[in-house]
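Handout, section B. The chain below has 108 residues.
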Amino acid sequence: MQTITATSPDEFDAALKAHPQLLVDFYKDNCPGCRMLDMSLQKFAASEAAQGVTLLKVKLETVGEAFFIGLGLRQTPTLGVYRDGTEVARLAGFQSPAQVEAAVGRHL
């Protein structure tokens, strides 16, 4: 699984267009659940289910709270699942590696 970072709304939009199977990790630095989700994503990345999936990291402190609010995000961490530029699932809060794999299998 390839990991990329968006530091602006334009980079976020470009990633949606460029990557047909995209997991988006919306997070912030001082969030214990975000750090736990990051560990789950690292374990998921080593699995066969992660083949062809791109992980996009979007940090609240970098992109801005207005961007998060505009997307209707209410908490961090939130994991968005995007297929061909369209959000097909949103998982709020910590997700185990098995939950991430199940969401990818179901939606991507």
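Note. The two ends are 14 Å apart (CA to CA). Compare this with the example in section A.
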